[in-house]
């Protein structure tokens, strides 16, 4: 559990030694002691790794691990406090030379003396620990415990498979489809009840995503509730889900609902759903109060509407939310179904996915112990993947089969085995995911940056932490083991967002609390003391002061917190996204160890000049705040890697899709910066960025036509660039980029905002481009023939990009899955030839009032799953609603018209 902390400490001890090696420190005779501490920690690290593989069994082993853990944290505190004190003196001007290139040694040697004394005490504590050999884990046992990593190629390919938890689902689905689609005019509530991990959500999701089901209703929405919820937030989510036309426009929801309260939100839903046949799924309901709150916003008199709720509680399933509910009780898998599901997980690499004969007897015995619970079977199957027969026997023999017959206890036991089988790095990564609220959509980039800041991703010379995490498949392995679930993917199927199954999260929270790794504060109990190193705040109650805050390394907020507790000094992570703060708390600029600062969505108006004190900051997110400019002092943050600072425009038809931010300092000084979005081009900024060849993501606004040579020269040298956004000063300004003779070869995403005189010739060389967005280009020539041959283009979005009357898609687009055509005032005809866009699944057409017929050839798009029409002519709508064009579109599962 604590080996990652040890690894970090061991790597930092030589830096401390370099400070303590002066003549004065030698006088204290501490150098040998520090070296001894380092050597002892290395031994402890190896034993702790073995302990994590096997699990401490005896009370003696547990006591030894606990003692070592305390010492590890003591050393961490000493080093971090030492660095903190030195940084304060350096800021005050009392300095001599750098520590780790950023920290000066104070002229006054008092802090060195205190540090040496504390480390000497720690050395004595280490010597007082009972002989390590007495409690060291048997290496044979540790190695046979198989801290085994699944084949990474298999783990990666697993992400692209359809859910195989659907074994035995056909019969269950038919039972629900009856009351869902029976045509009864009365609104009907269907309750699906079962224990955690029984497959309730999987079953309902399979039905919810069915094309026939979606065509049966005018609109539909899915909201997840969980134990802690805010009714107004749920109503806001419901409005956005029902009004789904905005989702394919690559925009945030076009209206800010945050200030609208319960009554107005309820009225909005009533007006929207009036006379519509809607389907609403309310997932994971824990109390009947929620159902009472939802009675007002959900209007009756909507013939044929259906509400499905999932719950673990029989009383909630039987509650008369609206009339007598249809109750569907989830049955666990039959023996044969359980075996099929297990084999799909455990033996997917075997011929035909069959169980080897030497494993069959033992495997069937183990599967039987799962008692038909899908989550247990899936987790257990993933655990046993690629293990040999001796490892199977060991797990069988070590499993505590004497547990009670409570299925919840058995499930916990199985999931605990999955946790123990993780590498020590992945253990930390997994537990960190539990700090997010139940059913929270955990975005991949945010999670990775948090892991980087905590040091969970090992450092490799010549590689960024992101590259290491990608190469080691951190997230893919957690998904393969069913410890994380993918809930959103990009156009290539690569995961963009995850969530934890609530049962898996319960396990992680329990382990995290027990090991003092971190604690989730949800307001159920007042906190008097925090022994953990990390805390995640989920309650809206006033946060009272509690002891232990000085030891915190991570502080995450998922409520409307307005103030921070006093005494926080050693934080590495401070995540205040969407907190109700209007200015950066004074304590923050003193957090010298801070690596990650997230202020996204807050009302902060400016960053203080003292932000320059955060010399170790790696990631700064101030997107969607009220900050308009970064102070000059930002240029002192030499370790900054990610600078996210744009604000979205909610109106898709405006010219300015994002708002950039002014940087007053020389941004080129930030030599470690990898990603920046979006920065205003003022002064010589475009020339400055020429030297920033390390960038992988760049967004620039306020570009002018005369910037062409500087802009193209700078971009051409950014060989690592993957994402690029360029926006001109206003809609009359011309965007000139013809001088770019050789664009970055790895460019995957390109967004151009501004008038183009012609399609740039270099477009044809964008062989790795997957996403192209042209906004306000107003080209006189049809852009489609110029980009049709791009081999990897998957998403294409055109907004006021063409001024012609006819658009022809005659060839190419072999991988395109999503096409958006928006705000074409003159367009009256779209022609699609046969065999083009063979993989397109989504077609979104909006604000094209002259278009009176569906695209000619739309019937050739056999894989088209949805057609969304917004702000189009009534003639076009009427031709689809049973008119002359109905036959051309009847193969499309979802047609949405607004």
Give the key terms.
single chain, 898 residues, alpha/beta, Rossmann fold, 5-stranded parallel β-sheet, 33 strands, 16% strand, globular
Describe the model.
With 898 residues, the protein is an alpha/beta fold. The model is unreliable at 19-30, 93-107 and 132-165 (pLDDT under 50). The two termini are 53 Å apart. The strands form seven sheets. The chain has a 17-stranded parallel β-sheet. A five-stranded parallel β-sheet has the order 4-5-6-3-7, with helices on both faces. It is 35% helix and 16% strand. Among the domains are: 3-141, no CATH class; 152-162 and 333-420, no CATH class; 169-329, Rossmann fold (3-Layer(aba) Sandwich), CATH 3.40.50.300; 424-508, Winged helix-like DNA-binding domain superfamily/Winged helix DNA-binding domain (Arc Repressor Mutant, subunit A), CATH 1.10.10.10; 804-898. The radius of gyration is 30 Å and the shape is globular. It contains 30 helices and 33 strands. Residues 176-349 form the NB-ARC domain. Residues 551-869 form the Disease resistance R13L4/SHOC-2-like LRR domain. Keywords: Nucleotide-binding, Plant defense, Repeat, Signal.
- Report the count of strand segments: 33
Structural class: alpha/beta
Proportion of residues in extended strands: 15-25%
CATH C-level of the domain at 169-329: Alpha Beta
Do you know the CATH topology of the domain at 169-329? Rossmann fold
In angstroms, what separates the terminal alpha carbons?
Answer: 53 Å
Radius of gyration, in angstroms, nearest whole number = 30 Å
Q: Main sheet?
A: 17 strands, parallel
What is the mean pLDDT? 82
CATH H level, superfamily name of the domain at 169-329: P-loop containing nucleotide triphosphate hydrolases
Q: Helix proportion of residues, in percent?
A: 25-40%
Low-confidence stretches: 19-30, 93-107, 132-165
Shape: globular
Helix segment count? 30
CATH architecture of the domain at 169-329, by name, is 3-Layer(aba) Sandwich
């Amino acid at each position: 559990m604590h080996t990652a902390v040890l690894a970090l400490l061991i790597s930092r001890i030589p830096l401390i030694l370099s400070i303590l090696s002066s003549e004065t420190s030698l006088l204290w005779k501490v150098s040998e002691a520090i070296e001894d501490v380092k050597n002892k920690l290395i031994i402890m690290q190896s034993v702790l790794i073995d302990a994590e593989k096997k699990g401490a069994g005896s009370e003696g082993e547990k006591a030894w691990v606990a003692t070592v853990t305390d010492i590890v944290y003591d050393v961490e505190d000493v080093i971090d406090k030492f660095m903190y004190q030195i940084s304060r003196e350096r800021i005050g001007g009392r300095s001599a030379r750098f520590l780790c290139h950023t920290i000066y040694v104070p002229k006054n040697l008092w802090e060195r003396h205190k540090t040496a004394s504390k480390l000497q005490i720690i050395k004595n504590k280490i010597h007082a620990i009972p002989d390590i050999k007495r409690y060291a884990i048997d290496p044979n046992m540790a190695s046979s415990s198989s801290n085994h990593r699944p084949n990474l190629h298999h783990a990666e390919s697993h992400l692209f498979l359809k859910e195989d938890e659907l074994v035995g689902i056909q019969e269950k689905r038919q039972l629900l489809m009856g009351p869902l689609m029976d045509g009864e005019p009365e609104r009907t509530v269907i309750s699906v009840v079962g224990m955690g991990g029984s497959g309730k959500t999987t079953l309902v999701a399979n039905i919810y995503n069915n094309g026939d089901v979606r065509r049966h209703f005018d609109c539909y929405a899915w909201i997840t509730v969980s134990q802690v919820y805010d009714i107004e937030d749920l109503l806001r989510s419901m409005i956005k889900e029902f009004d789904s036309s905005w989702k394919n426009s690559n925009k945030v929801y076009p209206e800010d609902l945050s200030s609208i309260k319960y009554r107005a939100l309820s009225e909005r839903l009533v007006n929207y759903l009036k006379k519509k046949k809607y389907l609403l799924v309310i997932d994971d309901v824990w109390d009947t109060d929620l159902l009472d709150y939802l009675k007002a916003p959900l209007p009756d008199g909507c013939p044929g509407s259906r509400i499905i709720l999932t719950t673990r509680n029989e009383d909630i399933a039987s509650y008369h939310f609206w009339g007598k509910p249809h109750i569907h009780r989830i049955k666990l898998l039959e023996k044969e179904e359980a075996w099929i599901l297990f084999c799909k997980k455990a033996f997917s690499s075997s011929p035909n996915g069959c169980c080897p004969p030497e494993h069959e007897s033992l495997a069937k015995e183990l599967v039987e112990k799962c008692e038909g619970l899908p989550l247990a079977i899936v987790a257990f199957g993933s655990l046993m993947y690629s293990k040999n027969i001796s490892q199977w026997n060991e797990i069988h023999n070590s499993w505590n089969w004497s547990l009670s017959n409570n299925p919840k206890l058995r499930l916990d036991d199985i999931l605990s085995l999955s946790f123990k089988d993780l590498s020590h790095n992945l253990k930390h990564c997994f537990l960190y995911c539990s700090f997010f609220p139940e059913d929270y959509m955990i975005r991949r980039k945010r999670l990775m940056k948090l892991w980087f800041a905590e040091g969970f991703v090992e450092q490799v010379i010549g590689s960024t932490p992101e590259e290491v995490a990608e190469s080691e498949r951190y997230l893919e392995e957690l998904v393969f083991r069913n410890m994380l679930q993918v809930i959103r993917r990009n156009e290539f199927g690569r995961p963009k967002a995850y969530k934890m199954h609530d049962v898996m999260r319960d396990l992680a929270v329990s382990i995290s609390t027990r090991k003092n790794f971190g604690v989730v504060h949800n307001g159920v109990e007042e906190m008097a003391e925090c022994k953990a190193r990390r805390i995640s705040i989920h309650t809206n109650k006033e946060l009272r002061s509690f002891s232990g805050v000085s030891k915190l390394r991570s502080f995450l907020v998922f409520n409307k917190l307005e103030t921070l507790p006093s005494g926080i000094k050693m934080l590495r992570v401070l995540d205040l996204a969407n907190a109700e703060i209007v200015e950066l708390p004074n304590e923050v600029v003193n957090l010298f160890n801070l690596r990650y600062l997230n202020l996204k969505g807050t009302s902060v108006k400016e960053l203080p000049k003292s932000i320059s004190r955060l010399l170790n900051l790696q990631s700064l997110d101030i997107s969607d705040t009220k900050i308009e400019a970064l102070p000059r002092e930002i240029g002192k943050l030499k370790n900054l890697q990610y600078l996210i600072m744009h604000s979205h425009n909610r109106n898709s038809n405006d010219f300015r899709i994002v708002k950039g931010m002014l940087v007053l300092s020389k941004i080129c000084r930030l030599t470690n910066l990898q990603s920046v979005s979006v920065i205003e081009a003022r002064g010589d900024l475009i020339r400055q960025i020429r030297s920033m060849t390390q960038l992988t993501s760049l967004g620039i606004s306020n570009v002018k036509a005369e910037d062409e040579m500087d802009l193209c020269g700078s971009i051409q040298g950014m060989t690592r660039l993957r994402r690029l956004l360029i926006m001109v000063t206003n809609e009359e300004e011309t965007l000139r980029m013809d001088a770019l003779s050789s664009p970055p070869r790895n460019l995957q995403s390109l967004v151009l905002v501004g008038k183009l005189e012609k399609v740039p010739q270099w477009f044809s060389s964008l062989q790795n481009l997957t996403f192209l967005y042209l906004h306000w280009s107003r080209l006189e020539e049809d852009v489609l023939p110029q980009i049709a041959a791009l081999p990897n283009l998957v998403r294409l979005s055109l907004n006021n990009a063409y001024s012609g009357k006819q658009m022809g898609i005659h060839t190419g687009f072999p991988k395109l899955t999503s096409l958006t055509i928006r705000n074409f005032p003159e367009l009256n005809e779209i022609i699609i030839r046969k065999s083009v866009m063979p993989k397109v699944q989504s077609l979104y057409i909006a604000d094209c009032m002259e278009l009176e017929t569906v695209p000619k050839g739309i019937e050739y798009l056999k894989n088209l799953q949805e057609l969304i029409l917004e702000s189009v002519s009534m003639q076009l709508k009427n031709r689809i609603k049973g008119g002359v064009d109905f036959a051309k579109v009847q193969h499309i599962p979802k047609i949405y018209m607004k």
